[in-house]
């Protein structure tokens, strides 16, 4: 970090307004927390960040944010409603509040903060389910074995659980439910952003490959009533996807197909194909296999492939993809990719980029056959 030789302030969103001196006390507390006096202090905070993350995971799992939607509550009230131990809950809330996730408006009385609002389950852009997944056993244990991956180059999840994540999920319904809830929330949050960037109205039939329960495809078809859709997923997801599509009133416009996108065949006859947060789950060899299956299904009809992914920013630029890449490394056995890595992968499977994707954020890579 540049400038670490002088005092730095770590920006944390202000707490919501509290009566009288309560807000002033909260602000002064944040001011003290935000002062990091030296590079060693910065290093210590970063090295202890897993404590903060774990506190947020636990509070998300207890749905504390939902309990505070009506206003501040005492720790005793929160503990009673959440089925928690009040003294322990207080210490965890205090830890989270010192970085702006919740705010202690009076001693042992907490309220929502702007950051904590994202943990509510009743807001459209809730991050709660994604946070719960990040703190789940199958994620956290794998991340704890990062040193195994760094030393051996092998995926930590496989080492910890004795199998890759996909067969593990097939035999662990609770973990699958956590993942499905998280992906549904992420698709709802990012889906509208993608749809604002791509004009799907120029296509008549869109295939969503590895499209989960059909959340993104449903959003797409609701926006473009002249389009039809095909959802391709593993066989175990066919019934849940069919139910979601029907519940959204789109059963007459969507065909749900089960199969394996590594081996194909994928549905032909579509003029647009979408891979939404799919390829980052796979290393290049398997990612290229998926792309080749899409290329084969596309044929010579002049179709377009849209990858909804990230392009990693260069050098020391802040980029959340660099954090997510640790998940890919330890849990999924995949990778986030920089622009030159995308170019190489796409070329190996018979595609070329037709646009200039933005680096450093979730973006769109528009690909055409070579």
UniProtKB/TrEMBL annotation:
Compositionally biased region (Basic residues): 1-11
Positions of region (Disordered): 1-34
Domain of life the protein comes from: Bacteria
Signal peptide: none
Domain named O-methyltransferase C-terminal: residues: 146-352
Keyword S-adenosyl-L-methionine: yes
One record GO biological process: methylation
Parts of the chain that traverse the membrane: none
InterPro entries: COMT-like, COMT_C, COMT_dimerisation, SAM-dependent_MTases_sf, WH-like_DNA-bd_sf, WH_DNA-bd_sf
Pfam families, per database record: Dimerisation, Methyltransf_2
Residue spans of biased composition, Basic and acidic residues class: 24-34
Segments forming domain O-methyltransferase dimerisation: 51-117
Residue ranges the record marks as coiled coil: none
UniProt keyword list: Methyltransferase, S-adenosyl-L-methionine, Transferase
GO molecular function terms attached to this record: O-methyltransferase activity; protein dimerization activity
PANTHER family, sorted: O-METHYLTRANSFERASE CICE (PTHR43712:SF2), PUTATIVE (AFU_ORTHOLOGUE AFUA_4G14580)-RELATED (PTHR43712)
UniProt protein name: O-methyltransferase
Organism from which the protein derives: Amycolatopsis acidicola
Taxonomic lineage: Bacteria, Bacillati, Actinomycetota, Actinomycetes, Pseudonocardiales
